[in-house]
Each structure stands twice: as C-alpha cells, then as structure tokens.
Design a protein that fits this description.
- This protein has one domain: Alpha-Beta Plaits, CATH 3.30.70.
- It is 18% helix and 21% strand.
- The chain has ten helices and 19 strands.
- The strands form eight sheets. The protein has a four-stranded mixed beta sheet. Strands 15-16-17 form a three-stranded antiparallel beta sheet, with helices on one face.
- The chain is globular and about 80 Å long.
- The N and C termini lie far apart (58 Å).
- The protein binds iron/sulfur cluster (SF4) (2 copies).
- One iron/sulfur cluster is lined by residues 35-41, 63, 148, 150, 232-234, 236.
C-alpha cells in the first residue's frame, strides 16, 4: 500500500497504487434541490450507451429516491454497515476507508451484489420517510421528507474498481481523469464490481466483461458536456474540470463552486475514493442524514447556497447549469448577465440575472377575452 493525500478526508490514506492526479480532472456538480426525477438523463444515457444485449440491467446513470431508493438494492447501507461508524473531527476523517478496512489478502472492503439486486431500479421511488399523522395539514414545511439522488460513475481520484482489478484492465486517462475499462484485458472476474463502493461498474452476462460510464468522452473531446448533463430537464447538472488542489482558478465554475465556495460536496467521502461528482445538498432534509451522506461541510454549504441571491458571482456560477451544451472553462458576472466561455475563450452562453417578464392586461379589449398571467 502507498500513502496518498485524500483531500476529502483532510488526511493521508492507504491506497494500493501511487497517487497520480491528472492536470485537470473531469468533475460534475448536481444540485439535488432542482431534480424532479423525470429520468430523462437515465433514458438519454441508456439509449446512447446501454441498449444492447446483456445490458438490460445496466444503468450508467440512475436517479433514486432517498432514503429508501437504491440501485442496486441496498448498495450504500450495506457498505456503511460493513465499514462501521467513523467520526469527523475538525474536518478530518477519523474512521477507516474501504482501502484501510480491507480484509486480509484483499485490497478493498466491498461486496458483490446478488442478481436480484439489479431487478428493480425504481424500488423505493417516491417513498417518504416517516408517516403522515392523522389530521396533519401543510404548515409551510413538510414533516416527512425524501429527495432525488442522481448517480453516475464518480471517475474517482482513487478508484476502488481500478485498485481491485487483478488484470490491470481499468485505467484513468491522464488527460482528464476519466476512468475506463480496457475490455480486451478484462476477463470478467468482477473484482471491480465488488470493489466499487458506488456500484457503478457492471458485469455484462453476454459479453462476459465489465463495463461502466465512459464520461461520454467522444463528446468531451469535442468540448461538449455528456448526454446526461445536456439533456437534464431540471438543469441540475454542470460538467467541467477541477484543477489540482492548490491550483484552483476563481473563474473556473467547478473550482469556484467546489473548492472556493464549498457549496457542493462529495457523496460518501468516508469511502475514501475521492469521488468527482459533487452534490449541492437538499435544503429540507435532516442534517444528520445529510452529514452521513455528504460529510461535515453540509451546514456551511447550505448557508452559502441560501446566500446565492445576494451574491452575484455565486449566482453567475449557478447560472452556468443547463444553459449550454458546451463545457464552460471560465465564467464572469457582468451587470445584467452571467457569461460563460468555452475552451477557446469564446463566449458560449450569456444568461440574464433577471428573466425578462411581461405582464398582460387582464382584459384584452381587442379580442374581448380575459387573460391570466401565470407567475
Ligand atoms: S434529467 Fe435532471 S431533473 Fe430529470 S431526473 Fe435526471 S437529473 Fe433529475
Ligand atoms: S465510482 Fe466506482 S466505477 Fe466509478 S471510478 Fe469510482 S470506483 Fe470506479
């Protein structure tokens, strides 16, 4: 085992290989407050990449309802139970990661899901926590809760899948950190499926090799965001590149939101893989649940998120979500607009801070009809 620096844990950790951060790392931000679980992203991904034989149970992208939705069934609660409790002190994780808790003779703590665990991708969908009491009525805030969690491969900095592969068939592209499977080397041992804590690498029973999200790299290479990002109805997603720690640029929207404003947080950082999908946590969910899921930065992230309407720079970064198919490398706030630039420093998107609004007269004299304005 080597010692590598895990920035999510605030400490060094053990990992089977030397650390090698790419100069820029593919990264995503998902705003959970905006997801409506329409599954457009799931369908866009499925029809693009996993519509073939043996891929029936494979969803590179899925959206599940928390706390009771899972795909595959129980993926996170099973691993959390195996890992046991772990405390955070002053932003530093005191417990063990999946690498540090590996059983003797193995590289990673994990489990192989049963076939049935993949049979109901919508299990627990729209199920709330708690009961609605008899006589309860809406009092401005619901006393039961749930939220939608969109999930793809995290293209982890320290991938569990890669570290467990006995064939060295999984690699991380040096140019952007996308994690890929070399299927000509894979022999279908499924060690990767067992080791991925997010269960985002899949075994195909027809091809008899493993496969996973490829980050839509053919699009990335043309300066465009992946299918799941471009098609998102709720405009919850932004894809871009994270700089190396200490080299953050304030005009890069991903660096700015993740490392400078710290408004978006990794999913289960305690697993230790340093995942690169970052989530803006939901505002209405009990804090202890969120802290288990996104680590100790939840309270500060939500406070910052709430301050967005009064912070033009922050608002400008958030307006880069869902408004262009291009990858945004830089952004800025002008008086009336947020502007995003592509990799060639060309203007790719210009979004007004205030949407133009036109109110019609209630009574249209010309046509003699009453018209309503919907705000
Ligand atoms: S398309 Fe967007 S809003 Fe719809 S389920 Fe996917 S992430 Fe959520
Ligand atoms: S999420 Fe899983 S499949 Fe993706 S890089 Fe991390 S460990 Fe590998």
């Amino acid at each position: 085992m080597s010692k590598v620096q895990n920035i999510h844990l605030g400490r060094e950790m053990e990992y089977p290989y030397e650390g090698s951060r790419p100069e820029r790392q593919i990264a995503y931000i998902f705003d959970t407050n905006k997801c409506i679980e329409c599954q457009t992203c799931t369908v866009a991904c499925k029809t693009t990449w996993t519509a073939g034989k043996g891929q029936e149970h494979i969803f590179y992208n899925n959206v599940e309802t928390k706390p009771y939705g899972f795909f595959p069934h129980g993926w996170d609660v099973k691993l959390l139970e195996m890992l046991g409790p772990g405390e955070w002190q002053d932003g530093k994780y005191q417990g063990k990661t999946i690498f540090e808790a590996a059983p003797p003779g193995e590289r990673v703590l994990g489990y192989l899901p049963e076939e049935e665990d993949y049979t109901s991708p919508n299990l627990g969908e729209d199920v709330c926590s708690g009961d609605v009491q008899r006589g309860a009525f809406f009092q401005n805030i619901h006393n039961t809760w749930m939220f939608y969690l969109a999930r793809i491969c995290n293209h982890c900095t320290y991938p569990g899948c890669l570290s467990a592969c006995p064939r060295k068939a999984i690699y991380k592209r040096p140019e952007d950190g996308i994690v890929l499977v070399d299927q000509s080397r894979c022999r279908g041992y499924r060690e990767c499926v067992k080791a991925c804590p997010y269960k985002k690498i899949f075994y195909n029973m027809v091809t008899r090799v493993s496969e996973k999200c490829i980050g839509c790299f053919p699009l990335i290479e043309q300066g465009e965001q992946p299918q799941c990002v471009k098609t998102c109805i709720g405009k919850i997603r932004l894809q871009g590149f994270l700089s190396r720690p200490g080299e953050e640029k304030a005009d890069n929207p991903i660096d700015y939101l993740v490392r400078i404003k710290k408004i978006a947080l990794p999913l289960y950082p305690q697993f230790g893989t340093e995942p690169n999908v970052y989530y803006i946590p939901p505002l209405h969910v009990p804090r202890l649940f969120l802290q288990q899921m996104f680590g100790p930065g939840v309270e500060e992230a939500l406070k910052t998120y709430r301050s967005a309407p009064a912070d033009k720079q922050l608002l400008a970064a958030l307006l880069m979500f869902g408004n262009t198919p291009k990858i945004i490398h830089k952004f800025k706030a002008e008086k009336e607009h947020a502007i995003g630039y592509d990799g060639m420093s060309q203007e790719a998107v210009k979004v007004p801070f205030t949407e133009p609004f036109f109110a019609r007269d209630l009574f249209d004299k010309k046509h003699g009809v009453v018209r309503l304005n919907i705000t």
